[in-house]
Amino acid sequence: MADLTSNFIGIKSPNPFWLASAPPTDKEYNVRRAFEAGWGGVVWKTLGSEGPPIVNVNGPRYGVVHGADRRVLGLNNIELITDRDLFKNLDEIKRVKKDYPDRAIIVSIMVPCEEDAWKTILPLVEETGADGIELNFGCPHGMAERGMGSAVGQVPEYVEMVTGWCKKYYSKPVIVKLNQIFRTSENLQPQHKLVAQMQFH
Ligand SMILES: Cc1cc2nc3c(=O)[nH]c(=O)nc-3n(C[C@H](O)[C@H](O)[C@H](O)COP(=O)(O)O)c2cc1C
Question: Rounded to two decimals, what is the model's pTM?
Fold first, then answer.
């Protein structure tokens, strides 16, 4: 059989097919099902700080984008980050990683742009044994209004600052997730390029 093993910035997995952070990766039950189905890795549904719970959408996770004539132009995801307890998520991540040591588990994180918030959560995430973290600097709705998600991703200096804290308080690989407007290299500002280099060294 063809060798599909993957090594992405030091994170090994039996194949390069990973589930993005979203409902299919939001809890132990779903991630176990994904691994049983053969997925090589998952990015766990984004965790936030311990505190007042996030109130998420209940039911449809998409809002319709209408044109001037009310024709449907597209669908927009309106789900926020996890609405589940931080410590319950961390326990589940630890358990699943222990049972599937060969699969990649990345923990997506979104906490305020304050060093203390990152200093608090990163050791807890490291303790789970997960393979790396992904910084959710891409989410364009709901959290951006609170100074997180894409509000950070659009300011290269903030991206650099927070990534620096992650390299300081976390020993494993750090992935920076940006919004699609940064996907083309022409849109990558010099500081974003610097951050990308930090990930790959
Ligand atoms: C319902 C829903 C919830 C999502 N939740 C998150 C999230 O918590 N964190 C995150 O980084 N991305 C989240 N995403 C974005 C996905 O991880 C992914 O980046 C996006 O769907 C684009 O990939 P696709 O084109 O394969 O759908 C979510 C997407 C959807 C549709």
Answer: 0.90
Q: Is 139 a catalytic residue?
A: yes
Q: What is the pLDDT of residues 32-62, one digit of tens each?
A: 999 999 999 999 999 999 877 788 877 777 8
Domain extent, residue 32, equals: 6-49+60-200
Three-class secondary structure assignment of the chain: CCCCCEEECCEEECCCCEECCCHHHCCHHHHHHHHHCCCCEEEEEEECCCCCCCCCCCCCCEEEEECCCCCEEEEEECCCCCCCCHHHHHHHHHHHHHHCCCCEEEEEECCCCCHHHHHHHHHHHHCCCCCEEEEEECCCCCCHHHCCCHHHHCCHHHHHHHHHHHHHHCCCCEEEEECHHHCCHHHCCHHHHHHHHHHHC
Please tell me if the CB atom of residue 78 comes closer than 6 angstroms to any atom of ligand 1. Answer: no
Ligand 1 atom closest to the Cα of residue 108 is 11
Listed range (1-15, 57-71, 108-122, 166-180) with the worst mean pLDDT = 57-71
Regarding the beta carbon of 57 and ligand 1, being less than 6 Å apart is answered no
| 114 domain residue, yes or no | yes
In a domain? residue 120: yes
Atom of ligand 1 nearest to the CA of 77: 31
